[in-house]
């Protein structure tokens, strides 16, 4: 549901399964995904939802980066869709694609699934609200908390390196996962005999912002990025993927160096 880049990549990992893709305009979905035209925000098209769904991967994109926009898609639309599913399997599994924004740690801490969730921004707070709703409505629900997605077409860091953006002084930890690895993890959770209540999706290599951007700049033949004035700080967090790896998942791109 919300079958965009991640949904399409996940479907490619679900060979042998019957996969439906729900989106407002499904005409561009590749062969192998059965299209369902539907609007999560209004419920339009829900009459065409297929019966007997055994796994729902909920991976929408907010229409606006506002608290209202996030709540409309990650909370209200989820409830609307679950109530509209016609005769789902008795043991319906829900994979709710969330974000590591639910963690508010910001001093370089190592974070795993057992860490406290005290989000700093509205996005993390609303996603946590959606996670709680998901868990209350579907007994077998897994919250897939993804770190920063990157891959083809996602060039934000490349643009920053090319622009020579001045970076804050100190160590600012960042985390990411390649789109293909996120899809493989979602597919693994789809087929697993059982799923944990929450899983972090991240590669093997937390790295500071400067390390990543200077490496990209070097590969582009550009000088290292300048540093803003001010005292050195430590920020961000270092995410652990040990639980995902214990389930049998291995990232194809274990570090930013492999993916970029």
Structure, explained:
Helices cover 32% and strands 21% of the residues. It contains eight helices and 13 strands. α2 packs parallel to α3 (122-137). The strands form five sheets. A four-stranded parallel β-sheet has the order 3-4-6-10, sandwiched between helices. Strands 11-8-12 form a three-stranded mixed β-sheet. It is globular and about 60 Å long.
Secondary structure elements and pairings:
Elements lengths: L4 H8 L6 E5 L9 E5 L17 E4 L8 H18 L8 E7 L9 E3 L10 H16 L2 E7 L1 E3 L5 H8 L6 E5 L1 E3 H13 L6 E4 L5 E2 H11 L13 E3 L1 E3 L2 H5 L9 H4 L1
Parallel strand pairs: 1-2, 3-4, 4-6, 5-13, 6-10, 7-9, 8-12
Antiparallel strand pairs: 8-11
Helix pairs in contact: 1-5, 2-3, 4-6
Given as residue ranges, the uncertain stretches (5+ residues, pLDDT < 50) are none
Neighbour order of strands in the largest sheet: 3-4-6-10
Shape, please?
globular
Number of helices: 8
Strand runs, count: 13
Main sheet record: 4 strands, parallel
How far the N terminus sits from the C terminus, by CA atoms, comes to 28 Å
Which percent range describes the beta-strand content?
15-25%
Radius of gyration based on Cα positions? 19 Å
The arrangement of helices and strands along the chain is HEEEHEEHEEHEEHEEHEEHH
Query: What structural class do helix, strand and pairing data support?
Result: alpha/beta
Helix content: 25-40%
Mean pLDDT: 96
């Amino acid at each position: 549901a919300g079958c965009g880049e991640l949904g399409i990549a996940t479907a490619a990992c679900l060979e042998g399964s019957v996969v439906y893709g729900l989106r407002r305009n499904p005409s561009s979905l590749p062969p192998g995904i059965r299209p369902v035209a539907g609007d999560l925000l209004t419920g339009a098209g829900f009459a065409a939802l297929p019966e007997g769904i055994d796994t729902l991967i909920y991976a929408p994109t907010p229409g606006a980066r506002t608290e209202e926009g996030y709540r409309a898609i990650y909370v209200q639309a989820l409830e609307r869709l679950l109530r509209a599913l016609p005769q789902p399997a008795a043991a319906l599994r829900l994979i709710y694609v969330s974000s590591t924004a639910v963690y508010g740690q910001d001093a370089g801490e190592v974070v795993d699934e057992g860490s406290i969730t005290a989000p700093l921004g509205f996005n993390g707070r609303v996603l946590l609200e959606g996670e709680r709703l998901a868990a209350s409505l579907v007994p077998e629900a897994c919250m897939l908390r993804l770190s920063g997605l990157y891959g083809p077409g996602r060039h934000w860091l490349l643009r920053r390196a090319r622009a020579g953006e001045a970076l804050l002084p100190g160590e600012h930890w960042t985390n990411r996962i390649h789109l293909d690895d996120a899809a493989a993890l979602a597919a693994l959770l789809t087929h697993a005999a059982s799923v944990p209540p929450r899983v972090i999706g991240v590669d093997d290599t937390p790295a500071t912002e400067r390390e990543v951007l200077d490496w990209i700049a070097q590969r582009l033949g550009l000088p290292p990025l300048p540093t803003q004035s001010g005292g050195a700080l430590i920020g961000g967090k270092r995410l652990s993927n040990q639980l995902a790896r214990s389930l049998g998942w291995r990232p194809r791109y274990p570090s930013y160096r492999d993916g970029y």
